[in-house]
Amino acid sequence: FQRKCAFDVGDYGLGFCANSLGLGCDCLGEIHYLDATLSDSKGEPYTVKKVVCLHEEDDGLLWKHVEYRTGHNQSRRSRKLVISFIVTVVNYEYCVYYYLKQDGSIAMEIKLTGMLSTNYTDARPDHGTLVAPSVNAQVHQHMFCARLDMAVGGHKNSVAEVDVKALPLDESTNPFGNAFGAAATLLETEREGQREVEPSLARTWRIFNPSKVNPVSHKPIGYKLVCQAQPLLLTHPSSAVSRRGAFATKSLWVTRHTDGQFFPAGEYTVQSKGQGEGLPEWTKDGGKSIVDTDIVLFHSFGVCHIPRPEDFPVMPCESTGFMLVPDSFLSCNPGIDLPEDRSTMSKCCSGG
After folding, report:
1. Rounded CA gap, 7 and 245, in Å?
2. Residues 176, 232 contacting (CB under 8 angstroms)
3. Regarding predicted confidence, which is higher, 341 or 202?
């Protein structure tokens, strides 16, 4: 039990666990489905129907403004293209969504649902929650890692860590103590590229192309990685879990592109002994430059799940993910020229 660490991607294979999606609930609206061809244990191909779903969804307001002097009101609703698939890994479901949005941003969301991993107990548990009589659901984490092979305006990119910091009191520049601003630090080597999320500093990471400059901001064109605030891997560094899942000990790993480096926990997680497979092995030298070159970002993120009785017997969706947001990549709001469109299906039910 102390070695319990399921690599749902490497041990099971998300493709092999993928659902055939149903119209009207798994996917809603006008749908285009894609089938998937996989291989069985003998290497023979087989096809799973309707594995990937493509559709559009309303995404709330994209922008709005009321001119307070005249009362003139303008607003536009947002739509997003959703690319999704759902997998069942034994007791758990992972619902994976990629969102392409009209503000130029790209988002990934993973919704977790299904059934909790439980065990019998005849006492009040120390490391879990009673979700039914004698049924203990353990406190646990789900850790993911997204490989982001960035190419912002080309393949030669750099990464800056951007923190928002209060400025010191200064009689000439900050006499009233109101000033704060963004401070960018260039990450120069793979060692410096191992970073952690810091919510108190509103930390983001800006991936930019040093050779291409935005004509409005006069900054290099870029996209910024916006992360959620969740803890990294909480197991002790000496534990088998931490040694095998070392990728989850950092929020970000920036590496120099190398062919064949796809899997952050190593090629064969079933046989992993926690000897530095994957990202620790790739970055052990630490001195490789990640400035103005072909780089790959590995972003680790997840959910720390303290179960509730409301999660039993089948848990409602819990969400995690991240966003890539344009930062001086465009010259203005890309949705500013969307045509006005009012829903004919909306009705006022209050008599006004």
Report:
1. 9
2. no
3. 202
* Per-residue pLDDT tens digits for 173-221: 999 999 999 999 999 999 999 999 999 999 999 999 999 999 999 999 9
φ/ψ (deg, to 5) at 243: -65, -40
| Nearest-angstrom CA–CA distance, 285 and 272 | 21
Q: Please, which residues have CB within 8 angstroms of residue 274's CB and are 6 or more apart in sequence?
A: 240, 242, 243, 244, 246
Say how far residue 131 (Cα) sits from the centre of its chain. 29
Q: State which H helix or E strand residue 299 sits in.
A: strand 295-305
Q: Is 6 exposed, middle or buried (0-12, 13-18, 19+ CB in 10 A)?
A: middle
Strands, E assignment, 90-203: 92-101, 106-114, 118-120, 128-132, 135-138, 140-148, 158-166, 180-187, 194-195
Q: Would you name the residues annotated as active-site residues? A: 8, 92
* pLDDT over threshold 90, residue 22: no
pLDDT digits (tens, 9 = 90+) for 41-67: 899 999 999 999 999 999 999 999 999
Distance CA 230, CA 245 (A): 16
